[in-house]
Amino acid sequence: MLVLVADRHPLFREVLRALIEEALPTARCLEAATIADVVDLLAAGNGVRLMLIDQSLADSDGLTGLVRLSIAAPDVPIILFSGVESRAVAFHAQVCGAAGFIPKSLTRDAMRSAIAVVLDGGTYPPLVDAKGRRRPESAERVDALTVRERMVLEALVRGCSNKQIAYELQVSDTTVKVHVSSVLRKLRVHSRTQAVIKTKRTEDEDGAAHAATA
Questions:
Q1: Alpha carbons 214 and 212: distance in angstroms, whole number
Q2: In the β-sheet with 28-32, what is the strand arrangement from edge to edge?
Q3: Secondary structure class of 60 (helix, strand, coil)
Q4: Which of 2, 49, 156, 208 has the fewest CB atoms below 10 angstroms from its CB?
């Protein structure tokens, strides 16, 4: 397994590399110091399976760098490391595409456990809202969509084609394709059909939850 580690400090990159090698003895690490370096390595087609990215990279500009990497490699899980312990930041990182948010204050054992959760297809910490309350993962993924993306998803559920969606929203076919790709990436599905199924399942789960608390 090839893991890409990005941090501006060589010492912390060394720590991350050692952590990865402990957790995944067969893993091999690539190192980068900037978002631009990461993009170049991804473009080289090295077959990266996991990214560990420092939030404070010089060219990251908040979470913009995370969004850029999520778009560049939508199928590669990203763990964002941060010097800040904040549930709100963790929430926004997850909305922007991070599968994991790990404060640098965590112990090595906790970091290894978090990496294992992400590699197993999970999210670390469990999905929370901006106040730290846990929410169902499927509902959170739908909530992470922009207003326009939700309109596109609703049209997909109705069975609309790209041309029909473009006509309804008064945008180009190309713009619709961009929105559809973003919806699939945020919902972590690979096809329009899977997006529709996941959305209907989420609606059913939400309905059952509201009925139970009524």
A1: 6
A2: 28-32, 2-6, 48-54, 78-82, 100-103
A3: coil
A4: 208
What interhelical angle do 147-157 and 173-187 show, nearest 10? 90
Distance (Å, whole) CA 81 – CA 59: 15
Among 89, 100, 108, 91, which Cα is nearest to 124's?
A: 100
Whether 56 and 35 have beta carbons less than 8 Å apart is answered as no
Residue owning tokens 């929370």: 128
Closest of 32, 26, 28, 1 to residue 17, by C-alpha: 28
Cβ distance 51 to 30 under 8 Å?
Answer: no
- Tens of each residue's pLDDT in the chain, 214 residues: 899 999 999 998 998 898 888 888 889 999 999 999 999 999 988 889 999 999 988 888 777 788 788 878 878 999 999 988 877 778 777 767 788 999 988 888 899 889 988 888 888 887 554 455 555 555 667 767 776 787 788 888 889 999 998 988 888 999 999 999 999 988 888 889 988 888 777 665 544 444 444 4
CB 25 within 8 A of CB 40: no
